[in-house]
Amino acid sequence: MKRLGIPFQTFTPDIDETALAGEGAPQTAWRLSQAKARAAVSTHPNALIIGSDQVAMLGAQQLGKPLTHENALRQLQAMSGQTVSFHTSLTLLNARSNIMLTEVAENQVQFRKLSNQDIESYLHREQPYHCAGSAKFESLGIVLIERVQGDDPNALIGLPLIALVGMLNKMGVQLL
User: Fold this and answer.
1) Helix H segments across 40-159?
2) What is d(CA 133, CA 135) in angstroms, rounded to the nearest whole number?
3) What backbone phi and psi angles, to 5 degrees, belong to 37?
């Protein structure tokens, strides 16, 4: 948001981020970004509210936030040398008019081959236990990556700025 020059406040909603049975990664991210945006309406009834959520997929396995060192270690060991799909959903909700726009950006991330020592070193330095797929791409997590392909590289840090600019334009917000 600072890159776009827009003043903002942050809000951390208490949302259960568990995927529903039979729900794919894009659907989980979509549902959760909308739920997060809606959760802020009562305290910000006149605001443009942004909700975002990210879900990582390794093959058919959804990777959520690891929450513990042990879970993060297992995730990164499994992702080593593999391609992981990151689905980042962005919701922009006009709390006053109840108009809501949602998009999902997808990025394919090829991870480098990582030794257990690399993974342990990374986890001790970064502690990415609240990041989908155990990697903070906006900081040291970038060293885990070999290649990225996708809709918006900003989505990897949790906020698809390309989609956000388009949504803000649709809501009448001029950025230039």
Assistant:
1) 69-79, 116-126
2) 6
3) -65, -45
Number of structural domains found in the chain: 1
Domain of 112, CATH number, reads 3.90.950.10
> What residues make up the domain containing 86?
25-170
Q: Is 53 a catalytic residue?
A: yes
pTM over 0.85: yes
Q: List the one residue out of 38, 52, 40, 42 whose CA is nearest residue 9.
A: 40
- Spatial separation of the C-alpha atoms in residues 12 and 102, rounded to whole Å: 19
What is residue 4's three-state secondary structure?
coil
86 or 151, greater pLDDT: 86
Per-residue pLDDT of 1-40, as tens digits, reads 888 888 888 888 889 988 899 899 999 999 999 999 999 9
| pLDDT, tens only, 29-59 | 999 999 999 999 999 999 999 999 999 999 9
Q: Which is nearest to 176 in space by CA: 43, 5, 26?
A: 5
Check 14, 16, 53, 118 and give the catalytic one.
53
